[in-house]
Amino acid sequence: MCDIRLYLLVAGFLTGFPPAAILHAQSSAPEFVQLGTQLMNESPGLAIWSFTRAIKEDPTLPTAYFERAKALIELQNYDVAQTDIAKVIELEGESVPVLRLRAEVEKRSRELRAAIATLTRVIEISPNDEASFRDRAELWERVGNLKEAESDYTLAMKKAPWNADGYHHRRAGLREKVGDLDGALADYDEIVGKPGMNSLYVFEPAFRRGSILFGRQAYAQSVVDFRSALARSRDHPDFSAGLHIWLARSRLGETAQADHEFSDLMRKVAMDPHASNEQLKLGEFILGAISESEYWDSIGSTHREDKLWRTLASFYAGMKRLLEGDESGAIELLQKVAATEFGHFQLTECQWAQWELKRLN
Fold this sequence. Notes:
By secondary structure, the protein is mainly α. It has helices at residues 2-15, 20-23, 29-39, 44-57, 62-74, 78-92, 96-108, 112-125, 130-143, 146-159, 164-177, 181-191, 199-215, 219-231, 239-251, 255-270, 277-286, 292-297, 304-323, 327-338, 348-360.
């Protein structure tokens, strides 16, 4: 019966005229709810019509309001969705699903503080609801309260220890942002090197841990992590990991070995269709194939992407000067990097520039 009605509904609405047999059928409210749920993926608008018919048949059916609210959210009609959610609560009281739906509407409406309050109520009702701790942590992060976000990720990890690696990763990122590098390293240590871990999942923690270790002048250890990240890069060689290996080995005094390893990587990058001209030019500069002035001339200056590459150029040109013993020239360029608009989560080199300047000054 429902399949036939679904066919007639879709056919009718596609022509702009819902069949009268459907519009006036004496169907039950649950049948119209079932029709609506079947229509949701194809057409939220048709689903709303079906849920509305269900409400007409039975104005006290909470499921019809709940499902219509979900369809309204898909159409970004958040005010009406909130009205339906309020009706569900009026009919059957607060529950985890309906409150989580309310929090979703508030989040999409950018009412982040309200969403936090709603998720707090969910947690009061269901203290073991891992997802609500996780979602509230993400919202705390968005409003800038990183300590509360860190606390919620920790609680979510306790509720679902089988998801611990993901929460260690998120918490490590927060700890880096607030300057708790020891805490961040402890979280990354829980992930990197663990047997059986998904290769793609380990790439970022290995890369970030290597970055922190590099900043602490633990160059040999950072090389191990950057190599781990490079080994896990998918489909094409990871230029950044290879570049960082070159720099760390150069700081260890292994200049010839660093150049040889980076040269091997650049041969692979040159054959990679995803490689950019900026990567190739930076590689040529690192290996001495072009001069610093020639490298600068190869970089644009108009777009934000150009600014990012000019920041990278300043950093690596500065580090090359430092490796060659030109401290004053290195400081001049590293100061430009430290003052850039890019945060260290957008560009690791900005953080490194700040750390190098502290050491040099």
